[in-house]
Every structure is written in structure tokens, then in C-alpha cells.
Design goal:
This protein is α+β, with helices and mostly antiparallel strands and 86 residues long. 21% of the residues lie in helices and 20% in strands.
């Protein structure tokens, strides 16, 4: 789990907007898309493993995965949430 102090320091590497822990409902939606083969990261890689945790950008448009309790704050690893509307 990401500590509150660390979370307060983390920002989107692209827009510098604050990040928040993604809620369970969003994770479920993303993981359904992964399971159906519809989710790619910004770098174009198709996601094949479900996410256990992640961070949501303040505008609600971008999800950054958390892997082994480490936030992956690389633009190419981000998931654009607009693709979930498909």
C-alpha cells in the first residue's frame, strides 16, 4: 500500500496533476477490458495481466499501474481510460 505521505508527493509525469488511489470499481472495469483484450498502454503494448492496484490522475483520464507496491509513473506505461468506453 502506498503511504499517504508518498501519495501526496506523486504527480502525473506528463501533466503534473495530482494522483489518487484508483477505486475498486475502476480496477474492475480496467481488468474486464484487459480480460477482453481491449486495453493497451500509451506505448501500444496490449495488457494481458490484470492490475492489482493503480493511481488515477485528477482529471480521471489516465491510470498508472502500481506493481509490487511501486507506482509505475512512466507515460508509456499509462492506460488512457477513454479506451474503456469502446
Amino acid at each position: 500500500m502506498i503511504s499517504k505521505d508518498l501519495l501526496e508527493m506523486l504527480v502525473c509525469p506528463e501533466s503534473h496533476q495530482p494522483l489518487a488511489i484508483a477505486q475498486a470499481e475502476l480496477l474492475e472495469q480496467i481488468n474486464r477490458g484487459v480480460e477482453n483484450g481491449h486495453v493497451k498502454n500509451v506505448g501500444g503494448t496490449k495488457m494481458v495481466k490484470p492490475f492489482e492496484s493503480g493511481l488515477l490522475r485528477a482529471d480521471g483520464k489516465v491510470f498508472y499501474p502500481v506493481v509490487d507496491e511501486i507506482p509505475v509513473l512512466l507515460v508509456d506505461e499509462a492506460i488512457l481510460l477513454e479506451q474503456l468506453d469502446d
